[in-house]
């Protein structure tokens, strides 16, 4: 086995790892403090199509986590970065709550399409508008491609089906910016001065968190909280670097074994 | 001018015509006939050639569709239209399927005789304004709740052209539901072989004596050729012009200048296929239907009128 470089950065998933909906994972706040006492850069990474960084920060602060806004990197941030790099003006099919993350991005006379989770925008007129732009060469950017999600009253279509329909109609491929895309993890590290080999990702989604991070060259730690189901760790190859009970146990391992 | 000589036009006894983009451009206002097409249909009938319309139109019953065509000046009878909804009804009866319909309001009467209680499949048509999130979600929930989901799609076209621009066709929504439920839809309509075969049966001519004329390179031309027919691509409707023709237009800043370009380009501008101002490099990225990677039409013709001219000369 190749010698590992010293660990310099830790990426942490939010919902399912630090907290579950509106309650913190037991001991997670304290564990985060201990993690911060080590010489490590910490970033919080999440796939979100609805919540802006500000909303996320508010919830985390209320739950007693010591986190700064610039430490949060979401799929919306990734989309914004891509728009800035390509210098395009998006038609934003995203939830109104996500709009603060796009403040300052010009949207007049759009020449790009961003699709998040926005049931109120997924109607005939708007889909046709997006379609025509893409057919005219506008890039299609997907926050993620989830097939569906669960609401109290049942399953609901996610952004993936609508992205897929637009891809088919225009014979193009969307650029997916969220986890588990390799570029998502690399972008999250940008500005930290760390290489992927010097980073570890902690999350509850075996494919999207652990598998994605490991594909990007990081190590991945799977926690058995949130959406974790028994035998999830067998779903990816190579297997997770480590599987442990919860975020505090992952932090213990990092502090004792990885520094 | 049609390429590759005129061998393709010989020994013809019947024509299958696509409708939208060949006879007329559809639109909220009822649409407008494509120049020369009304006269071309009249000439086909006068020549004694058999004629059948083969359409994926699912925004109206055949009866009201034919009324609309007649109002535009096309002398067509209901029996001369092969359309997906009647074919789907046949299939539903054959297999004892009870559909949940996600279709255009005006198509619903086609399914009047079909049992729709306690649905065990979803039938998807070009529902237009009915393609709302709520309606798609309802169809999705039904499908995902079935032990073996059955999705029947009336065609799988990507898009079509209306007088006010290009519109997503049923195929985009079919793909959305396929992806959401991880299933494969069954397509009734072009380019399905079975559908072309039923159109040929109604035409009463074997495939080698029939020519299909359409504006959709994959669903019309490719589908018909799969059935052993010859097929012509018209440069009307949703046909996309080659980049070379577009490149000539790049310096053009307005329609007047564009008018000096190649005749086909100017026609394209008139039809709204090409922008009147084409300075955007993005435009040039659009693939063209001339030199399609998979489908080679037996010939390209500018429009139905030109095709009929050549075919009648060869009779």
Automatic annotation (TrEMBL), chain A:
Keyword rRNA-binding: no
Keywords noted in UniProt: Coiled coil, Magnesium, Metal-binding
Family matches, as Pfam families: Hydrolase_6, Hydrolase_like
InterPro entries from the UniProt entry: HAD-like_sf (IPR036412), HAD-SF_hydro_IIA (IPR006357), HAD_sf (IPR023214), LHPP/HDHD2 (IPR006355), STAS_dom (IPR002645)
GO cellular component term, pick one: cytoplasm
Gene3D superfamilies documented for this protein: HAD superfamily/HAD-like (3.40.50.1000)
SUPFAM superfamilies, per the entry: HAD-like (SSF56784)
Gene Ontology MF term list: enzyme binding; metal ion binding; phosphatase activity
Cofactors named for this entry: Mg(2+)
Domain STAS: residue ranges: 1-83
PANTHER family per the UniProt record, alphabetical: 4-NITROPHENYLPHOSPHATASE-RELATED, HALOACID DEHALOGENASE-LIKE HYDROLASE DOMAIN-CONTAINING PROTEIN 2
Entry similarity comment: Belongs to the HAD-like hydrolase superfamily.
Protein name, per record: Haloacid dehalogenase-like hydrolase domain-containing protein 2
Organism of derivation: Serinus canaria
UniProt gene name: HDHD2
UniProtKB/TrEMBL annotation, chain B:
Parts forming coiled coils: none
Transmembrane segments: none
Recorded GO CC terms: cytosol; nuclear speck
SUPFAM superfamilies: HAD-like
Localisation: Cytoplasm; Nucleus
Co-factor requirement: Mg(2+)
One of the GO biological process terms: phosphate-containing compound metabolic process
Assigned EC number: 3.6.1.1
Predominant cellular place of this UniProt entry's protein: cytoplasm
Enzyme class: hydrolase
Domain of life of the source: Eukaryota
GO molecular function: inorganic diphosphate phosphatase activity; metal ion binding; phosphatase activity; protein homodimerization activity
InterPro entries: HAD-like_sf (IPR036412), HAD-SF_hydro_IIA (IPR006357), HAD_sf (IPR023214), LHPP/HDHD2 (IPR006355)
Similarity remark: Belongs to the HAD-like hydrolase superfamily.
Function comment: Phosphatase that hydrolyzes imidodiphosphate, 3-phosphohistidine and 6-phospholysine. Has broad substrate specificity and can also hydrolyze inorganic diphosphate, but with lower efficiency.
Protein name: Phospholysine phosphohistidine inorganic pyrophosphate phosphatase
Native source species: Serinus canaria (Island canary)
């Amino acid at each position: 086995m190749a010698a590992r470089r010293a660990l310099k950065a830790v990426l942490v998933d939010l919902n399912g790892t630090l907290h579950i909906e509106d309650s913190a994972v037991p001991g997670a706040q304290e564990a985060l403090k201990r993690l911060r006492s080590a010489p490590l850069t910490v970033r919080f990474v999440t796939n979100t199509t609805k919540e802006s960084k500000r909303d996320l920060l508010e919830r985390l602060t209320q739950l007693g986590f010591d986190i700064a806004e610039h430490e949060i990197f979401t799929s919306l941030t990734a989309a914004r970065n891509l728009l800035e790099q390509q210098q395009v003006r998006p038609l934003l099919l995203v939830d109104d709550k996500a709009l603060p993350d796009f403040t300052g991005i010009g949207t007049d006379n759009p020449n790009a399409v961003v699709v998040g989770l926005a049931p109120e925008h997924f109607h005939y007129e708007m889909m046709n508008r997006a379609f025509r732009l893409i057919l005219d060469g506008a890039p299609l950017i997907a926050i993620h491609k989830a097939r569906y999600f669960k609401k109290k009253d049942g399953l609901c279509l996610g952004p993936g089906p609508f992205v897929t329909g637009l891809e088919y109609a225009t014979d193009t491929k969307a650029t997916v910016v969220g986890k588990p895309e390799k570029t998502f993890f690399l972008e999250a590290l940008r500005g930290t001065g760390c290489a992927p080999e010097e980073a570890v990702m902690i999350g509850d989604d075996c494919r999207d968190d652990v598998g994605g991070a490991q594909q990007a060259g990081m190590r991945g730690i799977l926690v058995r909280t949130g959406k974790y189901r028994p035998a999830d760790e067998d779903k990816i190859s190579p297997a997770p670097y480590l599987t442990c009970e919860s975020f505090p146990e992952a932090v213990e391992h990092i502090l004792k074994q990885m520094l | 001018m049609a390429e590759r000589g005129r061998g393709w036009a010989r020994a013809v006894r019947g024509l299958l015509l696509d409708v939208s983009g060949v006879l007329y451009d559809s639109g909220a206002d009822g649409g407008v006939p494509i120049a020369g097409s009304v006269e071309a249909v009249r000439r086909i009938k006068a020549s004694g050639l058999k004629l059948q319309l083969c359409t994926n139109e699912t925004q109206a019953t055949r009866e009201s569709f034919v009324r609309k065509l007649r109002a535009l000046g096309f002398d067509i009878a209901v029996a001369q239209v092969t359309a997906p909804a009647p074919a789907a009804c046949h299939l539903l009866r054959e297999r004892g399927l009870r559909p949940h319909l996600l279709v255009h309001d005006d198509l619903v009467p086609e399914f009047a005789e079909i049992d729709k209680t306690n649905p065990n499949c979803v039938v998807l048509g070009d529902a237009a304004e009915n393609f709302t999130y709520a309606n798609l979600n309802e169809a999705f929930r039904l499908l995902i709740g079935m032990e073996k989901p059955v999705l029947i799609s009336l065609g799988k076209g990507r898009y079509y052209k209306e007088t006010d621009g290009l519109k997503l066709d049923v195929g985009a929504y079919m793909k959305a539901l396929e992806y959401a439920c991880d299933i494969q839809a069954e397509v009734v309509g072009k380019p399905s072989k079975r559908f072309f075969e039923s159109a040929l049966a109604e035409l009463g001519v074997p495939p080698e004596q029939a020519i299909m004329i359409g504006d959709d390179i994959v669903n019309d031309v490719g589908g018909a050729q799969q059935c052993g027919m010859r097929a012509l691509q018209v440069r009307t409707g949703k046909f996309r012009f080659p980049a070379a023709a577009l490149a000539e237009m790049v310096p053009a800043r307005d329609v007047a200048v564009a008018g000096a370009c190649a005749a086909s380009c100017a026609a394209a501008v008139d039809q709204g296929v090409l922008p009147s101002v084409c300075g955007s490099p993005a435009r040039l990225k659009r693939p063209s239907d001339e030199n399609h990677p998979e489908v080679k039409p037996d010939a390209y013709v500018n429009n139905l009128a030109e095709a009929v001219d050549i075919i009648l000369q060869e009779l």
